[in-house]
Amino acid sequence: MVQMFRLIDIENDQEIGVITENQLQFLIDNLEEEGIEDQDYYIDEDTLNFLAENDCDEELLAMLTEALEGRTSIDIRYEIA
Fold it and tell me: Are 75 and 10 in contact (CB under 8 A)?
């Protein structure tokens, strides 16, 4: 069974969307974690550009782009769906 994860906008505790284990692994591999148990990430326009340049899944990139819409940055976290 494929494990699914929810991305949550930390500021308003709203779900951004559901991602696959592979999509989550891409975020883990490409974004900075402050500690071994850190499960949150800072996303801004530069982050989106970096992810796109590193072959981010189109669905994941669109989800993050939509979540950032109208803001300069967001903090997101993930949890098991």
Answer: yes
